């Protein structure tokens, strides 16, 4: 086994507490000596920087012993081997010396003695600036901020003394003052030097564009002069002004200490303000930016709230409760929420959702969209071309001015189109529809509707159900539904048309009795119509001599029957009948005689062979001839309906028209 033992022994510690005793308590500090050395070094350094001036008078020489020859002194020292005051009996040879010669020890001072150094002499602190400043400098200045260069010579002469007022001057060829002298301005004021000239004007400096506070749409923004000069400084401390202020959109109105910006549209986006910053001599172009942003929404609570909008485009949500909402101007989006709300949308193209509850909504001016939602709502479109929806419930809707669209929705609704050309849809339920003035389009849709066209040339569709239609004044068109229900139609004043063109089966229209019947249309009653139109079936028109009407049979083999009057009129009357689409397969029936189109195309003798000139006692007499002109031809059929020997009835077929003239009998 190998054992390792240390060879160094630690000294025996007599008393363990001695290690905590401060050993240098009685030892003198060397800090004062270091301080004296440091001060001496600083003094020598200052003396080297500021050399003392030559003395005007020499100090008297101090008493000095006569000089001794250096060779003699060295010889004497070597011979004696010691200096006075040196302790005797000690070996003076230094151990480790490289020579065998003895080295003499210098005498040790018994105490510190002060050095007789010369006194400090402080110099005038004012530097001689003429040593450093150039006498004349000639250069071409470089203008700042793209300003044009200043031509001429720029001279700078230093003034005397620190803070002297003398500066540079700008001189241009041929420039002179009113007295023919130089235009150079001499510096003045406190500390002005002699012969100095004023420094050349410098253009304003810009640290970047200005960003102003964003505003809501159609709001206003106050812009102060300090806002536009925010990033501009003048190196000469000249006062700055703003010139040529313009905006990319909106308008600016001057104020006492700035400008007022107003948006003239409801559009969102950036606005750029351009202007020039001037110090009176130079101007630099600057820009300021801000945005027109959307406003924060206005939200109510579940209680009955009163919410007010602004003239900006607001988003308002009434939430729950019976709220009162006044949106103000602007294109607003309004939600009433639950509860019986009272909503005034105000001006602008607004979107209004009434929500649940029995709401009252005033759309205001503008082209508005209003949805009443569930409940028995009252909606007023007021001005503008509005789209108004009653939705669920028994709603009351007024279109007001403008070309409005009204939709009743489910429930028994009442709609008033108001002025101008409106479109009314009753939709489901037993509705009451009023077109009012204007050329309106009214569709009752499902339900037993009561429809009033009002003034104007209206188009009315009754829809399904047992409907009652009064077309009103104007030249109206009433389109009867093929619903099989019994309806009543009144054309009112004007030249009105009753249209059964949707029917494909046979329709019989008895104009004399005012009844129309058929498998598809049911049994309808009508009055005050001047034009009748049927569909694709084999239809039958029955007219009398007291009814002057226009008939359009449509497709199918139609019969146009003219009946003899039941009594002889006492006065002379002329009644016109018109058939607009007499074609192959149609028949013109006068009493018991049927006239086909093929017969009318034959010559007159062919007509006589079919009908003959002689008739039975119970028949009528007919005769036929052609008449032609340069532009068109027509056929004339004459008949004696009451068998009195007078051809009182004349039927004229010209192209697609038949003119029947009843002569006085």
TrEMBL record:
Region spans: Disordered: 1-26, 53-97, 154-203
Feature: compositional bias, Low complexity: 170-187
Principal subcellular localisation of the protein: secreted
Descriptive protein name: Putative Hemolysin-type calcium-binding region
UniProt keyword list: Secreted
Segments of skewed composition (Basic and acidic residues): 14-26
A Gene Ontology term for the protein's cellular component: extracellular region
Subcellular location: Secreted
Keyword DNA repair: no
Pfam family, one: HemolysinCabind
Start-end of Gly residues biased regions: 158-169
GO molecular function: calcium ion binding
Organism: Candidatus Filomicrobium marinum
Biased composition (Polar residues): 73-97
InterPro entries given in the database record: Cadherin_5, Hemolysin-typ_Ca-bd_CS, Hemolysn_Ca-bd, RTX_toxin/Mannuronan_C5-epim, Serralysin-like_metalloprot_C
Keyword Secreted attributed: yes
Domain Cadherin-like residue range list: 201-282
SUPFAM superfamilies: beta-Roll (SSF51120)
């Amino acid at each position: 086994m190998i054992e390792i033992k240390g060879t160094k022994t630690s000294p025996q510690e007599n008393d363990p507490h001695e290690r905590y005793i401060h050993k240098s308590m009685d030892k003198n500090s060397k800090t004062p000596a270091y301080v004296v050395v440091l001060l001496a070094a600083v003094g020598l350094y200052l003396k080297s920087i500021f050399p003392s001036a030559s003395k005007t008078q020499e100090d008297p020489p101090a008493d000095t012993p006569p000089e001794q020859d250096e060779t003699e002194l060295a010889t004497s020292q070597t011979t004696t081997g010691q200096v006075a005051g040196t302790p005797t009996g000690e070996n003076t040879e230094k151990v480790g010396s490289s020579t065998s010669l003895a080295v003499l020890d210098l005498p040790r001072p018994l105490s510190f003695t002060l050095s007789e150094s010369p006194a400090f002499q402080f110099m005038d602190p004012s530097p001689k600036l003429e040593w450093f400043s150039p006498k004349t400098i000639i250069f071409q200045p470089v203008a700042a901020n793209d300003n044009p260069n200043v031509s001429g010579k720029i001279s700078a002469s230093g003034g005397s003394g620190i803070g002297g007022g003398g500066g540079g001057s700008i001189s241009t060829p041929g420039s002179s003052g009113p007295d023919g002298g130089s235009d150079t301005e001499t510096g003045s004021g406190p500390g002005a030097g002699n012969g100095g000239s004023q420094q050349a004007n410098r253009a304003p400096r810009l640290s970047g564009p200005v960003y102003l506070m964003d505003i809501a749409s159609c709001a206003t923004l106050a812009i102060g002069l300090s806002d536009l000069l925010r990033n501009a400084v003048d190196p000469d401390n000249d006062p700055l002004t703003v010139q040529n202020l313009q905006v990319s959109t909106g308008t600016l109105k001057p104020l006492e200490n700035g400008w007022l910006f107003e948006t003239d549209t409801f559009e969102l986006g950036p606005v750029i303000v351009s202007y020039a910053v001037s110090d009176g001599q130079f101007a630099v172009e600057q820009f300021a930016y801000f945005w027109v942003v959307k406003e924060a929404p206005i939200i109510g609570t579940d209680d009955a709230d009163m919410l007010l909008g602004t003239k900006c485009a607001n988003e308002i949500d009434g939430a729950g409760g019976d709220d009162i909402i006044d949106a103000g101007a602007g294109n607003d989006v309004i939600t009433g929420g639950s509860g019986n709300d009272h909503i005034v949308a105000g001006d602008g193209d607004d979107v209004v959702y009434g929500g649940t509850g029995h709401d009252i909504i005033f759309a205001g001016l503008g082209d508005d969209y209003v949805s009443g939602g569930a409940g028995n709502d009252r909606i007023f479109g007021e001005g503008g071309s509005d789209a108004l929806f009653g939705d669920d419930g028994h709603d009351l809707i007024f279109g007001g001015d403008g070309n409005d669209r009204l939709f009743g929705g489910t429930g028994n609704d009442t709609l008033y189109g108001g002025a101008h050309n409106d479109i009314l849809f009753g939709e489901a339920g037993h509705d009451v529809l009023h077109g009012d003035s204007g050329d309106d389009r009214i569709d009752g849709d499902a339900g037993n509707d009561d429809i009033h066209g009002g003034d104007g040339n209206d188009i009315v569709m009754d829809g399904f159900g047992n409907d009652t239609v009064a077309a009103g004044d104007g030249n109206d068109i009433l389109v009867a539904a093929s619903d099989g229900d019994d309806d009543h139609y009144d054309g009112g004043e004007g030249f009105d048309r009753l249209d059964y063109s949707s029917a494909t089966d046979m329709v019989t229209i008895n104009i004399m009795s005012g009844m129309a019947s058929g498998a598809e249309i049911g049994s309808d009653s009508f009055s005050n119509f001047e034009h009748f139109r049927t569909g694709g079936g084999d239809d039958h028109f029955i007219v009398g001599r007291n009814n002057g009407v226009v008939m359009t049979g449509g497709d199918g083999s139609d019969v146009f029957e003219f009946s003899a009057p039941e009594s002889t009129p006492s006065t002379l009357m002329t009644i016109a009948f018109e058939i607009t689409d007499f074609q192959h397969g149609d028949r013109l029936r006068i009493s018991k005689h049927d006239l086909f189109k093929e017969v009318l195309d034959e010559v007159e003798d062919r007509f006589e062979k079919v009908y003959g000139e002689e008739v039975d006692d119970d028949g009528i007499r007919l005769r036929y001839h052609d008449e032609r002109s340069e532009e068109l031809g027509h056929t004339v059929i004459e008949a004696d309906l009451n068998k009195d020997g007078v051809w009182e009835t004349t039927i004229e077929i010209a192209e697609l028209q038949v003119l029947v003239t009843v002569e006085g009998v």
